[in-house]
Design a protein that fits this description.
Blueprint (H helix, E strand, L loop, with lengths): L17 H9 L4 E7 L4 H16 L7 E5 L19 E6 L4 E6 L6 H14 L1
Parallel strand pairs: 1-2
Antiparallel strand pairs: 1-3, 3-4
Helix pairs in contact: 1-3
Length: 125
């Protein structure tokens, strides 16, 4: 784990987010989560621990989670390729490398909830 902020919140209640966890779990073997963040970033510290807990509850394999730690100038792996401007940014890709959806810091819902809704709409809707 390269981002301390992805360490799951121990008090996060998966039963309160059952449909979110179910959606993430249903696609655990076909989607990869690329997460850009920084332990220095207040938005990352606020949003990513619960996202880490959701991924853990959904039993997403470690090889399906790619954490990219950015410096304070937001430089790091894949920033230009994925057009990363704000953090946290989470890009969800299928096995063909196609972007299924993207969470960027300003969304109104928590990352796991927002991404699960988008995954449902894109893959099951």
């Amino acid at each position: 784990m390269s981002l301390e902020t992805m360490r799951p919140t121990p008090t996060w209640d998966a039963t309160a987010y059952e449909s979110t966890v179910d959606t993430l779990a249903a696609h655990r073997e076909e989607l990869t989560y690329r997460i850009w963040g920084g332990d220095w970033c207040k938005d990352c510290r606020a949003l990513l621990p619960d996202f880490g807990a959701a991924l853990a509850a959904a039993e997403i394999p470690d090889d399906r989670i790619v954490e990219i730690d950015l410096d304070r100038e937001k430089r790091g792996e894949g920033v230009e390729e994925y057009d990363i401007e704000y953090i946290p940014t989470i890009v969800v890709e299928d096995d063909a490398g196609r972007e299924v959806t993207r969470f960027v810091e300003e969304e109104e819902l928590p990352p796991a909830v927002w991404l699960a809704e988008e995954i449902d709409a894109e893959l099951e809707g």
